[in-house]
Write a structure and sequence with these properties.
single chain; mainly alpha
């Protein structure tokens, strides 16, 4: 089981490493252009898409849970149908995003105020990149299925292609053909459509998957579609709460002043890096739990929970140790502004202990996704968000920015405790 967990987690960790590299290349490429406002426009535009697409992450999570359970029952037809239904939903939602993009863009520009020059460049970037929405959401479904099928190498190959091609096209279109911010957006659109095509080809090559006309009546089965949509809606609500929690953290940071906003942003980047690494074990838990629940194998379920959590805790402890030893140097690489560095180092201890505290909520998320207990995930997140907002209001008055970080870590604790409360339900129904 130990080797199995690592064989599933390692490719996800490696693929996640490539994600921040894309943003770094985008910034570097645009940063060499004459117009400095383009740097802000790309960062601003990428932030908008991060929030928009993050909200639809349920397509990946829901697909993984249902498809993994189908695999556990050796019902490959149902696994394929789960993928097909999720892709149908993803492509439809992507088309709706394209239709609604003028409204979304206008709302985003209103909420995140910037200079007229940055807003103008952002509108250009947003107007081009939105056309890849169906590919992005469809790819979520594909990645969810591949995780469910325990084909983590395919996940790695798809992510490497997506991010590697994006970086290559960035350099080609901007540096060599001088397409400016339009080139950055086009590079992303092209890479995302090629990635979804590659993902479909991989699945077909390895499993013979295709949407069979003889199964179209089952594809649109009302009961199965309702079950998938209900689970996805619960995950959607949960994700919106998660997005709001970090948006609230940023909002409160801004109220403390620009210096605190900058320092907290740098520190959150370290927190995000640790989350990317620990997600590998959460994804491993998703598929292994899903298979165990599908087979109604309680011993396999308990072994998965125990071993995947053990390794996640070990790795989170190592990350905390790295931050403890090298945290000051990591901050220096991320910014050279002395005022920001001094302030960030004062609050670094919260980031040092962050991985050890947050890992429990990450792992429990993976377990509940695999078991498709999305209603419990929704309820746990709503309770946790309420506690977090109350903590922010009280602690920032008493402890200023320290209180803000304490509240964020409390948020992770509340998520873990509320999910742990519901855990016996998963064990009791797996026999």
């Amino acid at each position: 089981m130990h080797k199995r967990v690592w064989s599933l987690a390692a490719p996800i960790i490696l693929s996640n490493v490539t994600v921040p590299l894309v943003g770094a290349v985008d910034t570097a490429v645009v940063g060499h252009l004459a117009d400095i406002t383009l740097i802000g426009a790309v960062a601003f535009g990428a932030l908008i898409f991060s929030f928009v697409y993050w909200a639809f992450g349920f397509l990946r999570m829901g697909t993984t849970g249902f498809a993994a359970q189908a695999w556990g029952r050796n019902n490959l037809t149902e696994a394929y149908l789960t993928l097909s239904r999720a892709m149908l939903i993803g492509l439809s939602l992507g088309a709706l995003l394209i239709i609604a993009h003028p409204l979304i863009g206008r709302l985003a520009l209103t909420l995140f105020q910037a200079s007229l020059e940055v807003e103008s460049a952002t509108a250009v970037y947003f107007g081009i990149r939105i056309w890849s929405a169906p590919a992005v959401l469809g790819l979520y479904a594909i990645l969810g299925y591949l995780i469910a099928a325990q084909d983590m190498r395919a996940v790695l190959y798809t992510q490497l292609l997506l991010n590697g091609l994006n970086m290559f096209l960035d350099i080609l279109l901007v540096s060599y053909f001088d397409y400016g911010i339009e080139g950055v957006a086009v590079a992303t659109v092209c890479s995302e459509y090629i990635a979804i095509g590659f993902g479909i080809w991989l699945i077909h090559r390895r499993t013979g998957y295709r949407v069979k006309l003889t199964l179209t009546h089952r594809l649109l089965d009302a009961g199965a579609m309702r079950k998938l949509l209900n689970a996805n809606f619960n995950l959607f609500i949960r994700t919106l709460c998660l997005i709001f929690s970090f948006a609230w953290f940023t909002n409160r940071s801004a109220q403390l002043g620009d210096l605190y906003l900058a320092a907290n942003a740098v520190l959150l980047h370290l927190q995000t890096i640790s989350a990317y690494a620990l997600d590998g074990f959460a994804h491993a838990a998703e598929t292994l739990v899903g298979h165990a629940v599908g087979r109604r194998n309680r011993s396999a379920l308990l072994a998965t929970i125990r071993i995947s959590t053990l390794w996640a805790l070990i790795v989170s402890s190592l990350i905390s140790l790295i931050y403890l030893i090298a945290g000051h140097h990591l901050l220096s690489w991320m910014t050279n502004h002395s005022d920001v560095l001094i302030l960030a180092r004062a609050y670094l201890p919260w980031v040092v202990i962050g991985p050890i505290i947050a890992v429990w909520s990450f792992q429990l998320d993976g377990i509940f996704i695999g078991a498709t207990r999305t209603r419990e995930m929704r309820n746990a997140m709503l309770i946790s968000l309420g506690g977090y907002l109350l903590a922010v209001e009280a602690s920032t008055v008493l402890a200023h920015n320290h209180g803000l970080w304490i509240s964020l870590l409390l948020f992770f604790v509340l998520r873990a405790l509320t999910l742990a409360f519901y855990m016996p339900r998963i064990i009791a129904t797996t026999y």
